[in-house]
Amino acid sequence: MNEVAARNDESSRNPDSPPAYGQGCPIAIALDVLGRRWTMLIIRDLAHAPLRFLDLAAINPGLSPSLLTSRLRALEGAGIVARRRLPPPERSVVYELTPGGREAVMPILGALARFGGLIFESSPQPTSAAPILAQMRRNGRWLLAKRQGVVGSFVFEVDGQRIGLTIDEHRFEPSAELPERPTASIRTTSATMTRLSNGLVGLAEAEATGRLSIAGDREAALALIDALSMVPVAP
Question: Tens-digit pLDDT profile for the chain (235 aa)?
Fold first, then answer.
């Protein structure tokens, strides 16, 4: 067994091992870094904002600390991610995409998001509010890190499941309990939100076809949708 075959055999038995395509092809070389499990999801998270190690671990509860460390080291080695220490009083170390890394991987991330949006409706849909709540809690870390200044209480209805959401400068709290006087209410579907947040459908079209409706403070609702999206949504 040659060296490449031996490494591939080890990779098939241990999914955490680096792939070894050994083809001298730019695509194969890129996949040696980007094709490893969890890597693109870490890049997805850092595309929104610089995050701490603990933030990345909390957003991806199925990712072990040792594997997260390994993936971050590989991304640092490839020049895609860098570490930076925040000034006082925070003093935390955050990970962020480098300018070159952002330029290189964002088109790939966008293409994956568009493809996922196209096949989303054929994938299993949530049947309870629990998966929606979990996803919104993960998204909340992005929103707070982006410091969008979205403030208020919201009712977010997705696929018929209604979620309460309270946001201020330091808090993003999704809850099964609904606010009595929401700042705004947003009704949509998982498929529409996925397409909207990835630029596959425009805001005007989503509203015109009834796949998205907003009541209450429209400006606050659009700011929230925009903050949760990969691409600018609000006009």
Answer: 444 444 444 444 455 665 667 788 888 888 888 999 999 999 988 887 788 898 888 878 889 999 999 999 999 999 999 999 988 877 789 999 999 999 999 889 888 877 877 776 666 655 555 666 666 666 666 666 554 667 889 998 888 888 888 888 777 788 888 998 999 999 988 778 877 877 778 889 999 999 999 999 999 898 888 877 766 675 5
Closest-CA residue to 230 (of 113, 103, 94)? 113
CATH number at residue 105: 1.10.10.10
The domain boundary residue, chosen from 70, 94, 121: 121
Domains in the chain: how many in total? 2
The model's pTM is: 0.65
Residue 147's domain comprises 127-227
Same domain, 152 and 109: no
